[in-house]
Amino acid sequence: MELFRMKSFQPFARARSASTRQRGYSLVELSIALAIVSVVIVGSLIGVQRILANNRANALLADVPRINAALLGALSNSKGLPTLSTTQAAALGAFPESSVKWESGKAAVTNSFGGNIFTLGVNAKIGEVEAGRGYVVRMTQIPSNMCATIANGLAPLARGIWVDDTVAEAVVDGAPDDKIVVKAIQANSGIDLAKLVDNCQAGAGTRTINALIVL
């Protein structure tokens, strides 16, 4: 009877011992788990970055109707539109106060991507737009991957849009090169998607978007 008990216990003990040894994770299993966690973290970070970029783009697009509303009443019947400057627009309340920095009586306006936003007078005919009938909003340091999003967002309000790498404030005194125009400067035109992609992706880093607004 005692021998039977010992023989009966031995297989159980071996099974329990084997089960105990199998409780740990192998190096391969840990590596797979770490890889899965890494993919999830990277995917989450990319998603967060995209959300933040979209929020910045929406903030920038929201600035344009504000600029237009501030300038519409003040300049629609004014002779000052051809020489409009960012400083003048800022003095008329065209930009949020938090984005304007005054120095020696001149305003520098920062956009949501860390670049600048300028308002430029148009002192020469561009397409069908006569001098003094519109102005240009110039947005600098726009990330290439958000360039098309912003250009498309501007399309309903802008008479024409062009994309280049200009970063300075200057009065617009003629039509831009047709190669960089992504929305023709004429009524009822639409975005040229092929040119939009080419110009937004041209060069590394950031782009400048110019939108012609007619008053």
Automatic annotation (TrEMBL):
Domain of life: Bacteria
Keywords: Membrane, Transmembrane, Transmembrane helix
Every Type 4 secretion system PilS N-terminal domain range: 56-209
Chain segments annotated as transmembrane: 24-48
Keyword Transmembrane attributed: yes
Cited InterPro entries: N_methyl_site (IPR012902), Pilin-like (IPR045584), PilS_N (IPR014911)
UniProt xrefs under NCBIfam families: IV_pilin_GFxxxE (TIGR02532)
Name of protein: Prepilin-type N-terminal cleavage/methylation domain-containing protein
